[in-house]
Amino acid sequence: MKLRHFLISSAAAIAFGTTATAEILRFSSFEPPVAHVTKNILTPWAENVNAASGGELDVQIFPGGTLGRNPAQQLKLVEDGVADIAWVIPGYTPGRFDQGTIGELPFLVPSATAGSDAIWSMYEQGLLGGDYENFKLIGVMMSSPNALASAAEIRNPADMKGLNLRAPGPTMLGAIDALGAVPVGGITAPGLAEAMSRGLISGTFTQFGAIETFRVGETMSYYLDMPLGATPMLIVMNQTKYNGLSDEAKAAIDQYSGRVFSDTFGQSFDQNVAEARERVLAANDITVIEPDDAMTKEWEDALAVSTTEWIAGHDNGQALYDAFAAAIAKASAAN
């Protein structure tokens, strides 16, 4: 009887395209399940990998902080084995992926597409060391450039003086400090709307995808539309977990990772930001400030110190900057 039940169970598993030996991989996302990155990038990636693995893998998405609600703790979830894979914002753990903060420099990254292509090229060339070497990297990406969303009207650098302003990474926080504002770290994207509504911050460096996902549009009145630095992002996998997989499972992950993932992410991210911009502006009373050449030059001059300090503060900083700028130019020309 037991043998009969085993055979029936085995036949059912084959009929439904699964095997009893499928390795479950837990993929953590701090976003809600309906948010763009989780729904339209991470979930399809998991489905593609599962299909390509021939039953070897069952990648399961755990959205909305199911495995850990704090976006700043996503990297630790992977290190501790609570999650096998996670979407990580390096700026929430300063110092861990420091060379990638080059993407936070103002007026450098024009789009998520170009930025993600360029930063993956940097990694592929071995120019990003340190913690990058401690994980299996599914993707190394950049967001669309962040602009300044604020409750107060900010048109010129002098308007920022004394205001509490937030940014998602250390280099952007340094830019805020250079402009005479008060840099506020430690506020992750899910806490933005509350921080704005309570007056803890007057504004934040962000983009319309995050504004829509985390309902910031309801608390802001102005959007200064200029590229004030992108947000570095990673999809990291526990290296030991990856090493222990079968060759077939590794091949399925590799097929949809690396440059393929970074390029797909960048293009999808840019498209969503453009669409989210239209939706947010239609639903909220927000004044978009489009700078002219003179205003742009004023901001570029005021923020030039950020680039100078970044280069001086990193070993081979000038070489890294030159390599990234060249990669950005190449990616921009190709897209």
Automatic annotation (TrEMBL):
Entries under Pfam families matching the protein: DctP
Stored InterPro entries: DctP_fam, TRAP_DctP_sf
Which GO CC annotations does the UniProt entry carry? periplasmic space
Q: Does the keyword Signal apply?
A: yes
* Transmembrane feature ranges: none
Q: Where does the record say this protein resides? A: Periplasm
What gene codes for this chain?
dctP3
Question: Which keywords appear in this protein's UniProt record, sorted alphabetically?
Answer: Periplasm, Signal
Under the heading NCBIfam families, the entry gives: TRAP_S1
Q: Which organism is it from?
A: Octadecabacter arcticus 238
Q: Which GO terms describe its biological process?
A: transmembrane transport
What's the protein here called? TRAP transporter DctP subunit
The residue range of the signal peptide is 1-22
